[in-house]
Amino acid sequence: MNEASRSNLPPLQLHVPEPKFRPGDAVDYSHLVIPAAGAQARPDESCGASETHPLCLDLVRVLGEDHRAVGPWDPKLDPESLRRMLRLMALTRAFDDRMYRGQRQGKTSFYMKCTGEEATSIAPAMALASDDMVFPSYRQQGILIARGYPMVDMINQIYSNKADKLKGRQLPIMYSAREASFFSISGNLATQYPQAVGWAMASAIKGDTRIAAAWLGEGSTAEGDFHSAMTFAAVYNAPVVFNVVNNQWAISSFSGFAGAERTTFAARAIGYGIAGLRVDGNDPLAVYAATRWAANRARANGGPTLIEHFTYRAEGHSTSDDPGQYRSVQERTEWPLGDPIARLAAHLEALGEWTPEAHAAMDLELAEQVKAAAKAAEANGVLGHGLHHPFRTLFEDVFEELPWHLKEQSEQAIRERRIKWPEWKEEDS
Amino acid sequence: MNEASRSNLPPLQLHVPEPKFRPGDAVDYSHLVIPAAGAQARPDESCGASETHPLCLDLVRVLGEDHRAVGPWDPKLDPESLRRMLRLMALTRAFDDRMYRGQRQGKTSFYMKCTGEEATSIAPAMALASDDMVFPSYRQQGILIARGYPMVDMINQIYSNKADKLKGRQLPIMYSAREASFFSISGNLATQYPQAVGWAMASAIKGDTRIAAAWLGEGSTAEGDFHSAMTFAAVYNAPVVFNVVNNQWAISSFSGFAGAERTTFAARAIGYGIAGLRVDGNDPLAVYAATRWAANRARANGGPTLIEHFTYRAEGHSTSDDPGQYRSVQERTEWPLGDPIARLAAHLEALGEWTPEAHAAMDLELAEQVKAAAKAAEANGVLGHGLHHPFRTLFEDVFEELPWHLKEQSEQAIRERRIKWPEWKEEDS
Amino acid sequence: MSETASMKKLNMIEAINDALDVMMARDSNIVVMGEDVGYFGGVFRATAGLQKKYGRTRVFDTPISECGIIGVAVGMGAYGLRPVPEIQFADYIYPGLDQLVSEAARLRYRSAGEFTAPITVRSPFGGGIFGGQTHSQSPEALFTHVSGIKTVIPATPHDAKGLLIAAIEDNDPVIFFEPKRIYNGPFNGYYDKPVEPWSRHKDGAVPEGYYRIPLGKARVVREGEAMTVLAYGTMVHVAEAVLAEKGVDAEIIDLRTLVPLDIETIKASIEKTGKCMIVHEATRTGGFGAELSALVQERCFYHLEAPIERVTGFDTPYPHSLEWAYFPGPVRIGEAVDRLLKA
Amino acid sequence: MSETASMKKLNMIEAINDALDVMMARDSNIVVMGEDVGYFGGVFRATAGLQKKYGRTRVFDTPISECGIIGVAVGMGAYGLRPVPEIQFADYIYPGLDQLVSEAARLRYRSAGEFTAPITVRSPFGGGIFGGQTHSQSPEALFTHVSGIKTVIPATPHDAKGLLIAAIEDNDPVIFFEPKRIYNGPFNGYYDKPVEPWSRHKDGAVPEGYYRIPLGKARVVREGEAMTVLAYGTMVHVAEAVLAEKGVDAEIIDLRTLVPLDIETIKASIEKTGKCMIVHEATRTGGFGAELSALVQERCFYHLEAPIERVTGFDTPYPHSLEWAYFPGPVRIGEAVDRLLKA
Ligand SMILES: Cc1ncc(C[n+]2csc(CCOP(=O)(O)OP(=O)(O)O)c2C)c(N)n1
Ligand SMILES: Cc1ncc(C[n+]2csc(CCOP(=O)(O)OP(=O)(O)O)c2C)c(N)n1
Ligand SMILES: [Mg+2]
Ligand SMILES: [Mg+2]
């Protein structure tokens, strides 16, 4: 190209993504193409990865407008299992509601709900084996609930109290539950992704049968760790299921800042030549079916699958933000893929296996269950009210053994406590 | 899945890639599908990114078996330009040969050739505007040569001598040449990729018309920086051309360790929803045409393109390794896509615009040209023989101005020199 | 610095916002970017209103990739812009460390001045807000060890604005750590008592418009004879409160810039007082206090009347529930003061 | 450590290879991985022969992603393996820093012991091989500041093997920096003279089979009265040569492990000698020497007869042609020794 001809060129322009709706805007979702439930092909679990690639640009859906389960992805769960799924999702929501209020009441510093996204943890937890290792982000509390992890222990962690199994060290909701095959949650986004691959590789090295599954938000796919994970999983054919929970928001930034204007997040799978699926994340049956497909494939040495769960973050990012500042409140109410709990309840009703009365009774019962757990946990203390782990525990677990400098610092901390509260006795806390 | 059924499951297995051939193996490339030249469609430069995606799994080729240029990607260069292209590639090779020998003779510490890959820098350099900013890896010396950067300056850098514009600070071949719109090369792989995006974004913010182009090896695509670059470029529609030089080897590791067993590197573009092309990197006309396509697209605010150049690293990774230790020597001789210089020469001959005699004469002339430049550079010193930049320059450019601690350290360095060589005078060096 | 300009009362967030506003108006090459900094104006609101004022191509949200944020900033700097990226929390800077340490900090040197990285990376740091181990860290020592990067930490709204302007104008990469604990008011270490807002503190008075506080110059917060206290960020205020309470005639130096360090001011003070206490919130081992201690004993050895005291965070992650046990608060500082007084 | 075992002469690479071999044979949970470590056996040949012996699923090449290498190692550690990843050059560890600092180092703490990261990251470090600024760095101080990670640096083949075995057996993450300048022989700092091979050095004698050198224990290289020298890696040998040449009766301590540090040995020595010189190749400001200096003056203040001397690399990137001007060689060390002797 000739320098002289430059003057004829149009100036370059920076494209900066902007979401369709901002506070005050009326919401119109007519641009969203939502394929009919049941219309997506289901390739064999042992297929070549490229057979799944059309599904990366599609949307696997099972529950139709008439609340019936249709098509090849219908997992054909019995009513018992469906009711269990419904109950677990509702329990998760009840838990979130109470904990959110707990934070507002000053019982802890922070909380994060998963409202509207319950299907993306409950359904996978049911589709995986209970000892498959999960590497969650901070929004998969549903997995612990589905795996029967004691709710009181969850709340102890949230209250950072003296019974907190993590000794008050972690921000609320950053659980760790080895007994539930639930990996320690990190505050640093996306780091769990390569770790899940490493765990899966280890399982394969050992000839084990357990697979790994990892979760992160669509915003977090931009981190380098995501790419490392995909690359390693593709190279070593690691038995891992990658879940991208595309709830369309990352704090105040919409999914366009992670690349959603260009293609789907499931399409990343095409770029690495691994299997990928894009599912209606508010359709618990589709999520269940996709997870089972990917888990079976991984367990048969078919390698990794990336699943994008297309859903919507119905509430704020955390207790620290107010979504009304950056998005239209109508987004939630107009969201065309509905609510996973409502959709599953309607399906069960359509099957004649559920009633609104049963639902109301369940909600009451679950609220009571959570309340009881919260009360039990509160007996162990809430944040900032003195019932925490002993001071010396501050220095434990930095290393397996306390080196001299931490011993000295531990003594310092105890001394400081004595100076500040002369009446304090070491046994107290 | 039921825990009890576990015992029936096959053990998981770790797949560890292994190249087809190792030292001593006979090489058989019959598994390689090489499409016919001219058979690839050329979508309009303003097309939707997805129109290019079939090309990501194909191979754009222009030069046919009969050495004629065919098909829609034929850039229709005049014989003058073709001869210039040929000469620049041959000059690059002559330069490499001499510098390699220079290192072996102890004139410097390190060298890296680009033998067999000359087309991937010469052709893009010709297709880009001369003030488009390039962000190369260490194997694009051809760009400097194509842009007419003084060869003596290149060699001064390689010899780290007193005329080295980089003041002897950088490892040989880690050039920087602002006047040639050639960005400072980093020893850290892939870091230039997001930088190129940033430069391109800046150009777009300013309404400039200059675009950026970046290069890296297929092995380096595994770094997180690659992913950051692709994500940012996709999000902001940055005017940048990404080149992945797939020479199939990363030191001793074959491209399978970067994911090549699964899909192409061009396919990464599909994952981000940006334009992608896969070209025969040993076909200089295909490389030229692809670059021009991508540059025109970027300049018209059409956004980024990822180009995979499928080529072969004909020699060792650097002067520090011996490829005979990890791959079959036959790989090079059997490589079905030939040599870019030989192919372009044959094309010119087929056009009646070149002869073997002209080629031999050119080679002699270029060898003399390089020899003269090397001699001129040697007059400024070679590594480790005292003709280096003054000691105080060691402390300059850490910051714009010398802070007190570097002033003190600079005095220390001068004092040390006086102690070691009492006869030394500061003016000397 | 023009103290004659009319003043307004700002908290530290507002002062930072004001610095960005002043600079963006003066220099069209300045761009602000980071996670949530655009439309929303940052999780701490430091960039509020700027996108509206300067447009989406100068103030914008980014993908969640610290590597990408710093990497593109380096490229923009090479083009000729002056990017001011934000890293949402200092705890999340590690994915961008390679681009900072190997690229931004090295670019001028390795290209012999052909390319530079005039970028200012802003990031809230430090604890005391129950942020747990990934919203509380003080990683300044990872940067002070890297040649080619400047490290700046303000302790007041007044300084935050003047230093940020100087940092943005500086032609070298600067890491600008903002002590988030004192965004709203100076914290005296007594976490169980209410915090005084900046509007009631003298250093909450911030000149309007443009002014700079030169990098590399410390601020003597208070002159004194009994001992020298070296601190920065939040800890300046905590130390000040403890010493006032104890009635110690200490000379308190707010370093403001860690690299390049104002060694002259430090040296002069210690030659006068003969005693030195260093206070920082970061973990102890290998913290910037170690460098300060080494420098002081190298340069003032024969003036020192007592061992230099380092008062620091412990060598543990920043815990959630026991955050005040980790924090180098009044009791820890008080003990060190007493030791120095007794020596 | 069983010194009765039969000995063989090995250079440091061979000793490291031997340690890996011994451990892989003993523990099937040990896996070795990294760029070019598999078939080829590593760019420095440290893993040569291991893939052939232990198979491709226990010794394998990786993608070029330091983030991925450390990240998958953390996951493997959580499963129950003991990964020994290699980072090809310490200069390239930054892309993996987040996984090391925020993950490996924090995992035991944040999970209250439920998950651990028993990984040993090996990486060649240091200069003196004309590697330029990206094949010469000594970034140990970035790790010693991070709680939860141990930093180990051997100075001899004998120690390299014993320390690497101890590091692999350790249940905490260890960063194991190998001074590449002395892979083939101890370097005395006189770069213009031929290097003595390890086969002619007493510490090139390495016991066969399994033995450990406990982490956290320094080695007194030479007892003496005139001053204490604290060093590690290559600089142990350079300091030793300079002091021998000058005929100074110094006590030389090879730290071996920086965290946890053998403070007892250091303290006892300085209480005896009253003088201290610290030598490292890393840039000066905020280097590990600063921490050593701070600790020594805190604990031995009243024994110190002279300012502690830090002899270090300069606060610049590691240059290519002027590498010996950067290197803290005999002249720089010699000046510091003279100052200490005179004090
Ligand atoms: C490395 C890192 N950078 C930034 C943050 C701050 N941060 C916490 S959550 C969040 C948004 C994540 O969005 P997404 O991945 O979509 O998950 P979602 O919250 O929607 O579930 C950000 C930016 C962080 N925790 N870690
Ligand atoms: C961050 C980083 N990691 C590792 C290295 C060491 N290294 C230098 S070149 C190279 C191989 C690169 O291969 P590829 O990207 O395919 O480029 P090629 O050499 O084939 O052109 C490696 C691993 C490095 N320079 N930087
Ligand atoms: Mg999200
Ligand atoms: Mg390559």
Automatic annotation (TrEMBL), chains A, B:
Single GO MF annotation: branched-chain 2-oxo acid dehydrogenase activity
Keyword Cell membrane: no
EC number: 1.2.4.4
Domain of life: Bacteria
Pfam family, one: OxoDH_E1alpha_N
EC class name: oxidoreductase
Keywords: Oxidoreductase, Thiamine pyrophosphate
Boundaries of every Dehydrogenase E1 component domain copy: 87-381
Reported cofactor(s): thiamine diphosphate
InterPro entries: Alpha-ketoacid_DH_E1_comp, DH_E1, Oxoisoval_DH_suAlpha_N_dom, THDP-binding
CDD domains reported for this sequence: TPP_E1_PDC_ADC_BCADC
Similarity comment: family membership: Belongs to the BCKDHA family.
Protein name: 2-oxoisovalerate dehydrogenase subunit alpha
Upper taxonomic lineage: Bacteria, Pseudomonadati, Pseudomonadota, Alphaproteobacteria, Sphingomonadales
From TrEMBL, chains C, D:
Keyword Oxidoreductase: yes
Single GO molecular function: oxidoreductase activity
Domain of life: Bacteria
Pfam family membership, one: Transketolase_C
Limits of the Transketolase-like pyrimidine-binding domain: 10-185
UniProt KW keywords: Oxidoreductase, Thiamine pyrophosphate
SUPFAM superfamilies in UniProt: Thiamin diphosphate-binding fold (THDP-binding), TK C-terminal domain-like
Reported cofactor(s): thiamine diphosphate
CDD domains: TPP_PYR_E1-PDHc-beta_like
UniProt name for this protein: 2-oxoisovalerate dehydrogenase subunit beta
